[in-house]
Design goal:
GO molecular function: acyltransferase activity, transferring groups other than amino-acyl groups
Largest sheet: 6 strands, mixed
InterPro entries: Acyl_CoA_acyltransferase (IPR016181), GNAT_dom (IPR000182), MshD_Acetyltransferase (IPR050276)
Protein name: GNAT family N-acetyltransferase
CATH architecture: 3-Layer(aba) Sandwich
CATH superfamily: Gcn5-related N-acetyltransferase (GNAT)
Number of strands: 9
CATH topology: Aminopeptidase
Structural class: alpha+beta
Order of helices and strands: EHHEEEEHEHEEE
Organism: Cellulomonas xylanilytica
Strand content: 25-35%
Keywords: Transferase
């Protein structure tokens, strides 16, 4: 399996993969593929990685700028993340996230935040300390990994592409 940056000829495959991967998820409202398209269109898709196996896209992860208390300050958001249904729970998602975090760190980012299941993302180094909030969500779902400096404190806001989905 190869993890690499998205190429223009991957866009349709990423769209299909994201739609299919989230379709059976009870937490999904179907906004994930439109969010990725909107991030790309607005220039907010800072880092877009695909997992390729046998020449096909089997996974995708998006990273985009976030603000904390209104300031970007080198922080990025993780998501959406998609893996082909028949290949889930095999480490592809973790490998893409690990590579994405490495690339962000190498580019001088201060950290990365996400909304997600703490049991899943804790294994990837994310933590929730209650100091980072997002709307009225349970603080344990608002997680971050810090590359250097203090942990973030304040209200997390994602790129505008997430607004239409109520994120």
């Amino acid at each position: 399996m190869l993890i690499r940056p998205e190429r223009p000829d991957d866009v349709d495959a990423i769209d299909r993969l994201t739609t299919v991967a989230f379709e059976p998820q009870p937490f999904s409202d179907g906004s994930e593929a439109p969010i990725v398209r909107a991030l790309r269109a607005s220039g907010d898709l800072t880092l877009s990685l695909v997992a390729e196996d046998d020449g096909g896209v089997v996974g995708h992860v998006a990273f985009s700028p976030v603000t904390i208390d209104g300031s970007h300050d080198g922080w990025f958001g993780l998501g959406p993340i998609s893996v082909r249904l028949d290949l889930q729970r095999r480490g592809i998602g973790r490998a893409m996230v690990t590579e994405g975090l490495r690339r962000l760190r190498d580019q001088g980012a201060r950290g990365c935040a996400l909304i997600g299941d703490p049991e899943i993302y804790r294994r990837m180094g994310f933590t929730a300390d209650g100091a980072l909030t997002h709307l009225d969500l349970d603080p344990t779902a608002v997680q971050h990994v810090t590359f250097g400096g203090p942990s973030p404190r304040g209200e997390l806001r994602f790129a505008r592409a997430f607004d239409a989905a109520g994120h």
